[in-house]
Write a structure and sequence with these properties.
With about 325 residues, the protein is an alpha/beta fold. It contains 14 helices and 8 strands. The longest helix is centred in the last third of the chain and has 30 residues.
């Protein structure tokens, strides 16, 4: 088995998988600002990939950029055979590893039996992990939470996962019920590390939750030397340079926004061309490209913390495409 996790230095950093956020475009933005040691994709449903109707969308989620090195596919579902089918194709798609999501708290994902709902179906969780591993020589890892309802669930739940010897185990230090409403339970790290040592000492242990930047990573690495890696999620919204110790200027953030818009337009053009070839010229052109509205979720990352930021952002939110956004930015720059 090829296992890139073994080559990472202690205290490595990981970009968390975030639905609707860590797509191929935004990962390139983060790489430009200051890359983590490991990238994760947004979530891909294994059953969508296994279906003729859903495969195109799944493949769009599984795009890999040259800067995505190493890149781990974050996958979810509840059908072991579908896990095997997708796992068997990921190496050819350019991935260095695959990670099974057993911690997502989204109610729709949980209602479908995936994400954190797998904590309640441990036998099925193990079977999905085994089927995925049997279908590939890539390292298979798991991302999960302490438990579904109670913190105390972590002991039995994590022990069961560790007995399967995953290449890496990421623990979001909260339960599904807690969501992100309470502070992460950092105090449990020594006990979790003890379980890892007892049942799967070769597994890389990664912690997630309330970790905002590289400075905090270094503090946690000193306090908890038993932890191998640290995953940052929402911290990228406060500072896209969070994997570095650089404090960006307003001009640097606005330049990064320009880069994001350029990447979006390039990806949109590629997708329109691809769908035109697949579906024919009779298909509505507006349906071929990337959806524009989700791009607005990123604006606050770049446009905040300076005089007039709220007004500029409000104007950007009214825009219907990147051309209009660029016009708003050009007018703002002319006045500033």
């Amino acid at each position: 088995m090829e296992n890139f996790w073994k080559d990472l230095s202690k205290g490595f950093t990981v970009l968390a998988p975030m639905e609707g956020v860590t797509d191929v475009v935004f990962r390139q933005v983060i790489a430009q600002a200051g890359r983590p040691d490991v990238f994760f994709t947004e979530f891909t449903n294994v059953s969508s990939y296994a279906s003729e109707k859903g495969r195109e969308n799944a493949l769009e989620r599984l795009q890999v950029a040259p800067t995505d090195v190493p890149i781990v596919a974050q996958i979810w579902g509840k059908n072991p055979e579908h896990f095997a089918e997708l796992a068997g194709d990921l190496k050819e798609l350019g991935f260095a590893g695959l990670d099974i999501n057993m911690g997502c708290p989204d109610r729709h994902v949980n209602a479908a039996g995936g994400g954190a709902a797998m904590i309640r179906t441990p036998g099925l969780a193990v079977e999905c992990l085994r089927q995925a591993r049997a279908a590939t020589d890539l390292p298979v890892s798991v991302k999960t939470r302490l438990g579904y309802t109670y913190v105390q669930e972590y002991s039995d739940w994590l022990t069961m996962i560790l007995k399967e010897n995953p290449a890496a185990l990421t623990v979001h230090l909260r339960t599904r019920k807690e969501m992100s409403k309470v502070p992460a339970h950092f105090e449990l790290i020594p006990e979790i590390a003890g379980l890892r040592k007892a049942f799967s000492p070769e597994t890389k242990l990664i912690v997630n939750g309330d970790i905002k930047d590289l400075a905090q990573v270094k503090e946690l690495a000193k306090k908890y030397p038993e932890v191998d890696g640290f995953m940052i999620g929402r911290g990228v919204f406060e500072n896209p340079y969070c994997f570095t110790e650089h404090i960006p200027t307003r001009e640097e953030l606005m330049g990064l926004l320009d880069y994001h818009l350029d990447l979006f337009d390039e990806a949109d053009a590629r997708l329109r061309l691809k769908r035109a070839r697949m579906l024919g010229e009779g298909v509505d052109v507006a349906q071929r490209g990337l959806p524009y509205e989700p791009l607005k979720h990123y604006f606050k990352i770049y446009v905040s913390g300076f005089a007039g930021a709220a007004d500029l952002r409000a104007k950007m939110m009214e825009c219907r495409n990147t051309h209009e956004v660029r016009k708003v930015l050009a007018d703002w720059r002319a006045d500033n």
